Amino acid sequence: MGSDTIARWQFGITTVYHYFFVPVTIALSLLVAVLQTQWFRTGSDRYLRLTKFYGKLFLINFAMGVVTGIVQEFQFGMNWSEYSRFVGDIFGAPLALEALVAFFLESTFLGLWIFGWDKLSRGKHLATIWLAAVGTLVSSIFIIAANSWMQNPVGATYRNGRAELVDFGAVLTNPIFLTQWPHTVIAAFMVAGGFVAGIAGWHLGKLARQDNPDAEDVSAFRTATKLGAVVMLVAGLLIIVSGDLLGKQMTRVQPMKMAAAEALYNTETNASFSLLTIGSLDGSKEVFSIKVPGVLSILAGESTVKGVNDIKADYAKNGFTQSDGSKEALQKQFADKLATMGVNPTPNIPVSYWTFRLMMGLGFLTMLIGIWMLWVTRKGAMPKPGPLWTALMWGLPLLPLFANSFGWIFTEMGRQPWIVAGVMPTALAVSPTVSVGEVWFSMVVYTLLYGVLAVVEVGLMLLYIRKGLPDVAPVEQIVDEDAPLSFAY
Amino acid sequence: MTLLTVTPTALQVLWLVLIAVLWIGYLFLEGFDYGVAMLLPFVGRNDKERRVIVNTIGPVWDGNEVWLLTAGGAMFAAFSGWYATLFSALYLPLLLILLGLILRGVAFEYRGKRTDWAWRNRWDWAAAIGSLIPPLVFGVGFANFLIGLPLKNQPVLGGTATAPLFNGTFLGLFSLYGLIGGVTFVLVFLTHGAIYAALKTKGEISARLKKLAVTFGLITALPAVAFVVRGNLLPKLPGQLDSLRTVSWVAGLAGLVLFVAAVFVVWKGREGLAFILTGATIALVAVMIFAQLYPGLGFNNTGLATPLDITTASSSPTTLTLMTWAAAILVPVILGYQIWAYTVFRRRLGVENIPDDVEEPVVVHG
Predict the structure, then answer these.
(1) A473: DSSP letter
(2) Which of A203, A375, A433, B241 is the most interior residue, by most CB within 10 Å?
(3) B92, closest residue in chain A (CA to CA)
(4) Using the beta-carbon criterion (under 8 Å), do A428 and B341 form an inter-chain contact?
(5) DSSP 3-state of B314
(6) Can you tell me the distance from the alpha carbon of A323 to that of A329, in angstroms, rounded to the nearest whole number?
(7) Do A85 and B316 touch (CB under 8 A)?
(8) Is B137 within 8 Å of B91 (Cβ atoms)?
(9) B109 with A159: Cβ contact below 8 A
(10) A115 in contact with B at a CB cutoff of 8 Å?
(11) What separation, in Å, do the N-terminal and C-terminal C-alpha atoms of chain B show?
(12) Rounded distance between C-alpha atoms, residue B209 and residue B38, angstroms
């Protein structure tokens, strides 16, 4: 194996792991801010307890997101030096801006939020969680803009042996960015909705089994269950819309990715979408398939969907092109060099096919559970506790999270063999001075450390989930210099 | 010698200065939270005392660390050639730093989440070790920038271009001067951290930390003098300016003088002034180093057809202009709210301020 293969595995492992924590950070910070706002407005203990309960879980998650995120920023230079050199003029700016605008905001104001309960007025303290939540959203804008540029390299020119920025406005209005950002952020809300609803629903199930459940607890967890389920459902509907828009843009700029998503080898008009295909593992032979006619064409937004073989033939003749035969400026300018490199333009088709379906399938399943939860808890009813309810509640925080993971794996694997679509092959992006042994070593070290930390993190999560809603004391500012703080590490 | 065949633009010089400023922000701020965390298992005699120590940096350490991420991001955005060659050159050292940063970050956040001593003690050691590694490795790294990292032109992009890439080894970084750099950074941060913690605590803990600061300060003297003096006597790298070598000498020596003053002042019991002085020392030593990074960015470009310097590593004028506007608007805002955060947590802490632990939650299996 070359170092590019191991570096890709390393990127995959560390990024998928990092992204276990990102959606909860983005969306749960906002939901906690909403809960605290409700407490600020009503003064009701119910919202304060929920704020503190989910706030604590949010922080356990946030710590992991922070420390695994640092690895991401350094990894581009460490493992992918030639990528960094080639695209740094464009790709570096959003990363630096993300740190300047978002990371400072998140970290500083979360510090103020965690330790500031007895030091800030209620209004100012509420503002700190909102600013931290805004920070996480802004962070997502920059990083998705950077990723979208890799999918569709707009606003750039080939000069001085590298890609140079000519139009930052074009980078921020990249049609992939405009559709991928809402899709990603809304998907984060589905995760946070599932997280809030699953945990609250699990507690409701537990309370339903008690003879004399605490009325306050029941009412608080009902609120959280419904809030989570509604967020899940609304997010689900918006994901379908944004995913549809993204799919159409993707088909336009990366026709190969859509062909791989359906394992469509030959161009079809009114192409059908298979819900399930049983075939040989490499997808070359189909044994059994459930097909819905015309659906792929609808997803792609084009009545004729090009197949893998035809796109491959196109590539041999004209190089990388968008579905209408055009190229971005950078793709055009770099075409001569690519012609001498003999790149096979086909991604891993079984991976693209299955991750695409798992993403959608898990998303739909989450929505169905959300509808069912709202149904069984309607008009003050309690859920019927039992193994089914418990299993679903355990699954709820995980199903949309894995849907997110599969979505990203699809987006990134479907772009292959390119690190920058139609411009730079991934294999050429790797650091020439880093040995295979070094990449192996660091990958093993990260994997082991991340494994240990996962056990610790999940252990703490379960501990605080089971602990349930905390008792709360009245929140007031402390002026006595010798009085105990209301919160300290 | 093709180094600096083109005169650097004002923007390129500005960005080298801005990156120096970001590094100073990082070394000054995270410098003391590294120091505080390294002291954690040694200074706190019981859990409450340790909690006093850890809470002096609890609300702010993460915001301090963002200065490092921003410095890295700014190198990527403004000098992508520097970022690419440097980060791939220092592969294993950066891996060590990342492991340290992961350990300490998780340690601060998770130590208080359970009440048992074994759990907390383990995380305190993780925080201490995780806070020892970055200054040690960065010290070795900065010393090597003064020596000049060896480079070689290598074919890249399937042979369609060449790039200046690292031509040394991991073990080659650990020369005597490299080690002096590592030890100096660790000791300066220990002193800086002890002074900061003394400033943020009261009573007996604060007094103990002041004594410790004097001890560390005295131990630091020898390696610090060696680091500054040897650092300014190293052979000139291609393109370095005499005027900037003078700046480097003056900044380095001024840093040493202020450090001695800091130790004297904290011995006299004035930890507030001492903190400003150790902070100034760190800033001045950073100035000493960055004055020598012009124009070769800490690389030895001798004999290279394609050298790596402030002009060849730089991003385009378009990107530099965009980033300049962003930095001009955002850095003052960030400084404003970070200073505000420090004033919110200005109160000194003592054992009496630490709330009692809430009982370990009873685990009920559902």
Answers:
(1) P
(2) A203
(3) A438
(4) no
(5) coil
(6) 15
(7) no
(8) no
(9) no
(10) yes
(11) 73
(12) 13
A63 and B106 in contact by Cβ < 8 A? yes
Q: Measured between beta carbons, which residues in chain A are less than 8 angstroms from residue B350?
A: 482
Q: Is position B352 within any domain?
A: no
What's the rounded Cα separation, in Å, for the pair A152 and A149? 5
Cβ–Cβ under 8 Å, residues B299 and B148: yes
CA distance A321 to chain B (A): 21
- The one-letter amino acid code at B106 reads V
CA atoms of B356 and B48, how far apart (whole Å): 9
The domain ranges of chain A are 3-254+381-413+429-467
Q: Which domain holds residue B26?
A: 10-344
DSSP state of B351: G
Q: Could you give the C-alpha distances from A300 to A255, A258, B96, in angstroms and in order? A: 9, 7, 46
User: What does the pLDDT read at residue B109?
Assistant: 92
Those of residues 443-462 in A touching chain B at CB distance below 8 A are 445, 449, 453, 456, 460
CA A446 from chain center: how many Å? Answer: 20
3-state DSSP assignment of residue B312: coil
pLDDT digits (tens, 9 = 90+) for B7-31: 899 999 999 999 999 999 999 999 9
Q: How far apart are CA A244 and CA B147, in angstroms?
A: 56
Q: Are the beta carbons of B154 and A432 closer than 8 angstroms?
A: yes
What residues contact residue B67 under an 8 Å CB cut-off, 6+ apart? B22, B23, B25, B26, B29, B30
Q: Does A288 touch chain B (CB under 8 A)?
A: no
Nearest to residue B79, comparing CAs of B312, B293, B358? B312
Question: Which residue, A77, A335, A372, A446, is CA-closest to B90?
Answer: A77
Task: Check if the beta carbon of residue B195 is closer than 8 Å to that of residue B266.
Answer: yes
B231/A62 Cα distance (integer angstroms):
41
Q: Give 3-state DSSP helix, strand, coil % of chain A, rounded to 5.
A: 70, 5, 25
The tokens describing A401, both together, are: 């999270």
Q: Does A12 touch chain B (CB under 8 A)?
A: no
Rounded-to-integer distance, Cα A450 and Cα A429, Å = 25
Token pair in block for residue A241: 């819309």
Name residues 246-305 of chain B within 8 A of A (Cβ): none
Q: Which token pair is A56?
A: 């604590």
Predicted pLDDT of residue A464: 96
With a threshold of 0.90, does the pTM exceed it?
A: yes
Contact B160, B144 (CB under 8 A): no
Please count the structural domains in chain B: 1
What are the angstrom distances between the C-alpha of A172 and each of A145, A177, A181, A330, B3? 6, 7, 11, 17, 36
> Which of A66, A81, A84 comes nearest B105 by C-beta?
A66
| Count of residues making up chain A | 489
Looking at residue B361, its pLDDT comes to 43
Handedness of CA A281, A283, A288, A294 (dihedral sign): positive
Test A63 with B160 for CB contact under 8 angstroms: no
The token pair at A460 is 């703490």
Is B214 a domain residue? yes
Chain segment A334-369, per-residue pLDDT in tens: 888 888 888 999 999 999 999 999 999 999 999 999
Amino acid at A22: V
- CATH of residue B103's domain is 1.20.1630.10
* Average pLDDT in chain B: 94
Amino acid at A67: V
Quick check: B30 and B65 in contact, CB under 8 A?
yes
- Does the structure show a pLDDT above 70 at B3? no
Give alpha helix (H) positions in A43-103: 45-79, 81-97
- Taking a C-beta distance cutoff of 8 angstroms, is the pair A344, A418 a contact? no
Q: Are the C-beta atoms of B61 and B30 separated by less than 8 Å?
A: yes
User: Has residue B268 been placed in a domain?
Assistant: yes
In a domain, B24, yes or no: yes
